[in-house]
Amino acid sequence: MVNRKELNPDSSPMAAFGARMRRFREDRGWSQEGLAVHLSYSSQHISAVETCRKPPTLPFARELDRAFGAAETVDSFEREWRDIRHGSLLEGFPEYVGHEGRAAEIRLFQIGIVPGLLQTPAYASALANGDVRRGSITPEQAAERVSVLAERQATLVRRRPPTLLVVMDESCIRRPVGGAEVMSEQLERLVEFAALPNSMLQIAPYAMGERRPFNLPINLLTLLDRTVIAYAESHTQGHLDRESAFVLPVLSDYHQLQAESLSQTESVAMINEVRKGIP
Q1: What is the DSSP string of 116-157?
Q2: Fold category of 93-118+152-276 in CATH
Q3: Beta bridge partners of 110
Q4: pLDDT one-digit tens code per residue, 231-270
Q5: Nearest to 95, CA basis, from 116, 78, 109
Q6: Which segments of the chain belong to CATH 1.10.260.40?
Q7: Cα end-to-end span (Å), the chain
Q8: In terms of pLDDT, which residue wins out, 137 or 204?
Q9: How far apart are CA 68 and CA 133, in angstroms?
Q10: 208, 215 Cβ separation under 8 angstroms
Q11: Residue ranges of the alpha helices (H) in the chain?
Q12: Which of the 8 DSSP states describes residue 185?
């Protein structure tokens, strides 16, 4: 205890992470060596994270949650890590991403741009760089967005990937992003996605008109315990909802959207027609 370093949790998000880790550890009467027994990390590594000499990582945060029994709670270290990692993203989105990576089924509806989980790196970079040119984000934040997207896409290739159901407004495939080469590659990626055994891709055509139930993007996740949560986004804010009074009507509207949209075969045919028309 002679060399104990005092921590100031208000000095930075990383310091707050380290201070809370120390508090959880000491509440259980564990030394750093005692905590190391429950982790695959050394006491030296634990000390370095506690005192901000090393940043926490996602695997480290998840091991802390297992050791402290905090997994899947509002106090989880994984959630705090995501708040640190994704601090420049919309409110509610980091928590959504945590659930998305473990979902059994993902339903998406998107307007105007291809959904992030289906974007190619070039398409994602073009969108992010467009925001930089408008001055709405910094180059560092643009790089962060593309990095986060790559991490999200990586969760889809796990040993038991989720079922992914995607409905896109027709504007998603007709709005040019990044130039002809980028757009052609992106449309080809959509066709490849539609051929996967755990996927369904549909286009909501312009002709649907007022029958389209959503005017904003919507994400629905079915978790392993069959709980369904919804995430909706405006230009400035994201909102995650678990209340059945909100989620069940959204799920019903999504089913209606699927019924009104083109079939997957018709959707792929439309995507190919658009791709042929790219100069």
Answers
A1: GGG--HHHHHHHHHHHHHHTSS-HHHHHHHHHHHHHHHHGGG
A2: Endonuclease; Chain A (3.30.870)
A3: 168
A4: 987 665 678 888 888 899 999 999 999 999 999 999 999 9
A5: 78
A6: 13-85
A7: 70
A8: 204
A9: 44
A10: no
A11: 13-27, 32-36, 43-50, 58-68, 77-85, 93-100, 121-134, 139-154, 171-174, 180-194, 244-260, 264-276
A12: H
State the CATH class of domain 13-85: mainly alpha
Question: Is 50 exceeded by the pLDDT of residue 228?
Answer: yes
pLDDT at 140: 76
Q: Per DSSP, what are the bridge partners of residue 220?
A: 107, 230
Rg (CA), the chain: 22
In the numeric block, the tokens 């909102």 are attached to: 239
Q: Which two tokens stand for residue 63?
A: 């091991």
pLDDT at 158 over 90: no
Least trusted range by pLDDT, from 34-38, 202-206, 223-227, 272-276: 223-227
How many Å apart are CA 274 and CA 184, to the nearest integer?
A: 9
Dihedral-angle region of residue 273 (phi above 0 means left; psi in -120 to 50 means alpha; beta otherwise): alpha
* Dihedral sign from CA coordinates of 146, 187, 171, 269: negative
- Distance (Å, rounded) from C-alpha 229 to C-alpha 221? 5
List, for residues 86-101, the tens digit of each pLDDT value.
554 555 676 788 788 8
Cα dist from 118 to 127, 203, 226, whole Å: 13, 14, 24
Distance CA 229, CA 248 (A): 9
Domain limits, CATH 3.30.870.10, in the chain: 93-118+152-276
Contacts of residue 46, defined as CB under 8 A and 6 or more positions apart, other chains included, come to 21, 32, 35, 36, 39
pTM comes to: 0.69
